Amino acid sequence: MLLALALASIPLWAPRFWIYIATQALIFAIFAMSLDLLVGYAGLPSFGHAAFYGVGAYACALLALGHVDGLVPLLLAGMLGAGAAALPIGALSLRTSGIYFLMLTLAFAQMLWGLAVNWTSLTRGTDGLIGIPRPALPGLDTLNVSLYDRGPFFFLCLLVAIAVFVVLESLVRSPFGKTLEGIRENDRRMRALGFPTFRYRLAAFVLAGMVAGIAGSLAAMSNGFATPDLLYWTVSGLALIAVVVGGTRSFIGPALGAFLVLFAQLGLSTYIDRWELALGALFIAFVLFLPRGLVGLVRRA
Amino acid sequence: MEVTVTDLTVRFGAVAVLDDVDLEIASGERRALIGPNGAGKTTLLNVIAGELRPAQGSVRLGTRDATTLPPWKRARLGLGRTFQRSTLFGQLTVAENVALAVRARIRGSWRFWPGGQHPVREEVGKRLEAAALAHLANRRAANIGHGEQRMLELELALAASPSVLLLDEPMAGLSGAERQSVLNRLLTLPRQVTIVIVEHDLDAVFAIAERVSVLDHGVKIADGGPAAVRADPRVQEAYIGAF
Lengths: 301, 243
Description:
The structure holds 2 protein chains of 2 kinds.
Chain A: H1 2-8, H2 10-13, H3 16-41, H4 50-65, H5 71-93, H6 98-118, H7 120-123, E1 129-130, H8 150-173, H9 175-185, H10 187-193, H11 197-223, E2 225-226, H12 233-246, H13 252-271, H14 275-289, H15 293-300
Antiparallel strand pairs in A: 1-2
Helix pairs in contact in A: 3-8, 3-11, 3-12, 3-13, 4-5, 4-6, 4-11, 5-6, 5-11, 8-9, 9-10, 9-11, 12-13, 12-15, 13-14
Chain B: E1 3-12, E2 15-25, E3 30-34, H1 41-49, E4 56-61, E5 64-65, H2 71-76, E6 79-81, H3 94-106, H4 118-130, H5 146-159, E7 164-168, H6 176-187, E8 194-198, H7 202-208, E9 211-216, E10 219-224, H8 226-231, H9 233-238
Parallel strand pairs in B: 3-8, 3-9, 6-7, 7-8
Antiparallel strand pairs in B: 1-2, 1-4, 4-5, 9-10
Helix pairs in contact in B: 3-4, 3-5
């Protein structure tokens, strides 16, 4: 609550550049939270989550460039596009588990990355889709509120992030969420009790993909472009780092982790050429000394 | 519900772990499966539960041919089981463990929002009371004692209100008092529940079972009332000195 208020005040005092960075961090936080539904709650270590972030961004971009105006349709496009991609990828990847699941999700994401690079007639290849307009806000534009301004766009991202947080928190407290945890803890027993565990896992995979797609939509609107970089495995890797550093099995943790990783990236890359090295060291330090992440640190204090 | 196993053969590589086994278990019957270690008792339970596919033969649950059904479909037909080694949800609380089993029965798990769980919580409370686990409701299943875990293991199977209950060594590693409470819990089950129990504690076996089937090296060597099975020379040979 306090955190949300503190974040909401950012546009009032922060310099323009920092509003932009905070917006990026919020989008990344939505993405990381969606990944934790898989990693933390369902026990599915996906290394290809960027696939759904990227597909969401492209779906939103294609629709926006096709002259569809309207915030809700564009967010829905990212969500449903990503969900449509997650269904077959999940159906195939979830036939395996553990390290094999990790490798398969990575492989599928890289395939989609290759598709984004090579299907130039649709995606314009490595140039990406550029000049993506941000949607108008009917009713609010008379008040001079436009998503092209940093403040309102930041608030949009904040609102979506809070909505995603609330929905995911209630999801994991629901019977469905408890079922996922049961499957994570003991798949064999769940099947013996009569649960078709594959279907639950697939539902979780598609839901997580859809939320990642919302983040992707926001990223496309925020950047004004969608490029294959969004689907690259390093994006999946950064999200995994955010989840682990923030602390799995909570949603506030991965959101904080996303902020930390983004600010670390920004701060480190200013001073060190090989900032990935420093981020890697940070990650290792967290895994070794704070296995429950930032959330564990707060809980201990 | 009846359990009928016909001509069942299971092979691990070249070894026949079960060789042409037949079992006919009537509805509501209490049947024990005994035999030396490695006789194929757990394998037989796993085939009935659907975790292993037989090389030959069939499994019927009631009137339904279940040979190719996956475990979760058999569970929905009314089959419940416990495992030889406790198979719990370690990081979930004892109450959450039982709630999962209750929701499995009422098919209440495709709900994506919290709330409306009052009836489930109430039933979980009653079941924990009956299993003498109520004081542990909020402890993680991984952190309770071995005997308590065995009770919870049994309770998970019972919470689904099975019409066939497969028990794989429910007494293993329990103290005398704990054995007695498991036994009492089993003896108070409704008469129509069919029970198939694998157990090395022969006192418990003869307290529960009406009929006993004896396996040795994957072959059924005897089948009948407890007294007849005790007197069978082939059983005595397989089980030297056990009786």
